[in-house]
# Entry
Amino acid sequence: MSRTEGRPRPVGSAGQDWLLACNPDPAVVQRAWISLELAEFPTGPPHWRVAEAPLLPSVEAIARMGGDRIGPLLADIHRSVAWWLLPPDLTGELDGIRQLTVRPAGWVLRCPPVLHSVDGRWWLERPDGSGVLTAPAVLAALLSPGSARLSTEASR
# Structure
């Protein structure tokens, strides 16, 4: 029996495991994180796509929405931007939302580990290991002009 068997896993380890599984070379990611560097994650199938938005509207959006309906959200305080992780099969659902820049599949997102920041980047909403991502309809409702509240239709 190992020394850690039967002990609870550290908080965030399921999210960290999930994030590592989203990279083709987890060992390279872990080396970067051990060196306190950001690790590169290519976006697109099979894991997730990314929509970039200004930081302040993103923070306001998660305050209105509540954390139980959104997936991981990465922020960069130096650049004042946030990246929403979205389903990998994203098509044109977010076209026309001025505050969003949907990055193409293959675009690289540089990420810190789940539990601490690196170079001004941190997870506003941490990956929890479930694989839940933000629904495009929810994000569109939150960041569309005049979106004071999340409609019940968008939250389904």
Notes: The radius of gyration is 16 Å.
